[in-house]
Write a structure and sequence with these properties.
By secondary structure, the protein is mainly alpha-helical. The chain has 4 helices and 2 strands, in the order ααααββ. A two-stranded antiparallel ribbon has the order 1-2.
Length: about 120
Amino acid sequence: MSATPDQSEKRTGKRRLWLRIVTVTVIVYAILSACLFMAMKQTPAAFGSVMSKLPMISMMVLPFEPLWSIARAGVLRAGDPAPDFRLQTYDKSSLVQLSSFRGDRPVVLIFGSYT
């Protein structure tokens, strides 16, 4: 019971079609993941503007957490000095710069959300 040449051609055509569909899907997925990764490497404000335009389903479909871990890993090691930065005081009356505390005494940095 061998397939006729016509049936064999149909099977081959279907396989090629599925192969093309899978290939295009993988390429699109890779491109979208790369674009998301490049956005994650931007400043928080730029990344926030990109994320505000993405549909929520993209968080479930694209590898968000692994890309985030790689993109925001940083290069500091234990014992390295903290990079200099400026923040507003709680009452928004002035700015405080980390480098202004260097040499005085140890400084403890605590970041978090207290909402």
